[in-house]
Amino acid sequence: MIRLTAFLCLLAFSIQAQPKYWILLRDKDKNSAPALSSKALSQRQSLNLPVDETDQPVTVAYLSQLQQADVKPICQSRWLNAVSARLTAQQYAQVRTMPFVKDIRAIDPAIVITSIGSPDSAEQPAPHSTNPKLAPVMTQIQANDFAQAGLTGRFVTIGVIDAGFFGADSANALKHVFVRNGVKQVRDYVNEKKTHSELLRTLETTSDLHGTEVLAAIAGNDPTENLQFGLATDATFYLARTDQGNREYRGEEDNWVAAMEWMDSLGVRLINTSLGYAKGMSNPKDNYEPSQMDGHTSLISRAAQIAADKKGILIIVSAGNEGEDRSWRIISTPADAQGVLAIGATNSRLWNRIGYSSIGPENLPYLKPNVSCFSLYGTSLSAPVITGFAACLMQANPKLTNKQIMEVIEKSSHLYPYGNNYVGYGVPQASRALALLKHQELPATARSVKATGKTFTLPIETTEAVVSVFHKKDAIHVMQQEAAKVANGKVTLRRSNDEKQTTVDLKKEVIEVIWE
């Protein structure tokens, strides 16, 4: 009996271990109808976004020919015109010769939930907390300004793509969402046999709490503690579980793309995903390299860019928690895609980068992360805060496009226009965002000064004893961040070798020092 059990386990492992691939197809049946709901079609029309071939389904005849070759497609992507499947070496060789197959790409990088625990020793939370204390970030982003304007994400639909939503319907902070039927549908792309209730009530790993925490950071409000966790307390939600496990798990990019396309077909325009792909674990030859975080190498980033450019979707992604991993340090994909809003994390006192928060690669021609905000629990819980922020803006002006919302969020941030690859443009401010929506002139909170020599004494107006300083090799890329002491209303800056610019962050004002 023991031997039989061992044999069956070995057989199951062997089948599961067959490599998984994207099979990219050459063309589509142009006569097929778009796979979109009437709501999605209406929104496209209102946003002046054309329906094109990326909205048409994968050609049925091609699927039939793959099935005849005993290839069983797992997921289909109309955006990428591809299907995923596990292939033996023989099937791989056979499929590659099919005339309608353009290319075959391995799916092998590991998914990293950007993560529940923070490695920052100065501000370390209890592991796997199911009650994230996010009140400080509500103050940081000026949540009261949205509340006074009556903005709670009402009439806005949000998609959440994550690892699991265990206990979401019974969590105190989320009861108000489920009581009003605010969660419309839940899909499990890991185990499609699970029902709606089973997904919410089955705990396979501790990571199944992750999506619940993310949802709370978007819409949470706990009346028993009189504490608000998220901004979009009145939004409507679609939830998708696309991966299981916490770290070191073989990536399922196709599940993520499938969930994205499902939400798009329903007309969802705002999606939070606190997942990222970085280093793999099975075949080192198939792992991502840091140089590939370029916005177009990974298929998941290509899909994210299609969503931004052609579908009008604002994707808000956690930047990653690899800031202290010397072999990586940078953001993960799809946070590298230009069209997504990548969110880093700050500390609560100085608003500079908290240690674990991933930085933007130097090879990108655009700024990443885009913005940041406070989180003890990893960028997984800073991203949903900004998702709630975006939902309030969408409620205030539903006609705004995804790119306009992204621009408002960036321009409302406290370091704008002096962003950097540590925290982006800094922390979004609700008061500034509301003023931008009303086309009001913002108060002057940014200025530049010129300096020479190795040291420079800068007069500043602040009640803080310590301020944040970013030493930069150019306009964007940080060499070092510093907590600089304020003495007699002045801060003394010491220029490093190769330092070209220095940002002095006073929270209510930002000063850019340009060295000559």
TrEMBL record:
<keyword id="KW-0732">Signal</keyword>
<dbReference type="InterPro" id="IPR015500">
    <property type="entry name" value="Peptidase_S8_subtilisin-rel"/>
</dbReference>
<dbReference type="InterPro" id="IPR023827">
    <property type="entry name" value="Peptidase_S8_Asp-AS"/>
</dbReference>
<keyword id="KW-0645">Protease</keyword>
<feature type="signal peptide">
    <location>
        <begin position="1"/>
        <end position="17"/>
    </location>
</feature>
<dbReference type="GO" id="GO:0004252">
    <property type="term" value="F:serine-type endopeptidase activity"/>
</dbReference>
<dbReference type="Pfam" id="PF00082">
    <property type="entry name" value="Peptidase_S8"/>
</dbReference>
<comment type="similarity">
    <text>Belongs to the peptidase S8 family.</text>
</comment>
<dbReference type="InterPro" id="IPR023828">
    <property type="entry name" value="Peptidase_S8_Ser-AS"/>
</dbReference>
<feature type="active site" description="Charge relay system">
    <location>
        <position position="380"/>
    </location>
</feature>
<dbReference type="InterPro" id="IPR017317">
    <property type="entry name" value="Pept_S8_subtilisin_bacteroid-2"/>
</dbReference>
<protein>
    <submittedName>
        <fullName>S8 family serine peptidase</fullName>
    </submittedName>
</protein>
<feature type="active site" description="Charge relay system">
    <location>
        <position position="162"/>
    </location>
</feature>
<feature type="domain" description="Peptidase S8/S53">
    <location>
        <begin position="155"/>
        <end position="426"/>
    </location>
</feature>
<feature type="active site" description="Charge relay system">
    <location>
        <position position="210"/>
    </location>
</feature>
<dbReference type="InterPro" id="IPR050131">
    <property type="entry name" value="Peptidase_S8_subtilisin-like"/>
</dbReference>
<dbReference type="InterPro" id="IPR036852">
    <property type="entry name" value="Peptidase_S8/S53_dom_sf"/>
</dbReference>
<keyword id="KW-0378">Hydrolase</keyword>
<dbReference type="GO" id="GO:0006508">
    <property type="term" value="P:proteolysis"/>
</dbReference>
<dbReference type="InterPro" id="IPR000209">
    <property type="entry name" value="Peptidase_S8/S53_dom"/>
</dbReference>
<keyword id="KW-0720">Serine protease</keyword>
